[in-house]
Write a structure and sequence with these properties.
By secondary structure, the protein is an alpha/beta fold. Helices cover 36% and strands 18% of the residues. The protein has one domain (14-294): tm_1862 like domain (pyruvate-formate lyase- activating enzyme), CATH 3.80.30. The mean pLDDT is 94.
Amino acid sequence: MLPIRYVEPVFRPPSEAESLILPVTDGCSWNKCTFCEMYTAPQKAFCARDEAEVVDSIRRTGERHGAQVRRVFLADGDALVLPTRRLLLYLEAIRTHLPAVHRVSSYCLARNLKKKTVAELQELAAAGLKLAYLGAESGDDEVLARVHKGETYDSTRSALDKLGEAGIARSVMILNGLGGEALSTRHADNSARLANATQPEFLSTLVVTLHDAGRRFLQAWPDWQALSQPGLFHEMERFLDALELKRTVFRSDHASNWLVLKGTLGADKARLLAQVREAITQPASAPLRPAWMRGL
């Protein structure tokens, strides 16, 4: 019997590939974003897991694999919705039973930090929570409203500022193409404005991709028109050109991206822009990912 009970499907950020996935909730407490189908399965209805079950899972994992586990990712969609007291209990159990762990991370919705003080977040950081993944999706209020994100530029910035002040590293994700043709320019500009204002430690972009969520998305935004491949590159060029970051690790290497981009901003800004501009002007010679490799 596995020491941890998993409810499929299980999701985690690409950079958590070697982490222990520890569910402390099931599903997403918001789950209204029209572009997202991660937690729409019936078995993924949101609930907080029982404290005793989570602590016992940590203990049993420690008995079997304690010396091997170096990183832990708290699942599912937004573990930081839990009360600080409960999160501290889990972090203490990780320190006790998984002593080799040097980083605990979690997804985070901006709305879940409204009731948490900087002092509470500092407690969590001191207890081992080192990284929060926040899907900003866009820095533009109209785009956010159209996709039912339930956030604004200001609410997202406030959450990122709180995390930064508390010493928790922030990994921010932006969806390339989310504004469609009509709002592409303001989506790029205001997403860059959000990144510039908060200076996250990590920044990544994915290309918006609609599958089962497509009907729900288009019902909410019926005149949305997807960007063409060149349109996505033009939006990325505008976004990168507007960024004024001091030391942010940038990745655009998710399977959804046609063009893989990796670097540190601002040191590698000129090189990254040159790569995007090559994809715009010389697509035949640019190292674009074939459609079949996008795995979508």
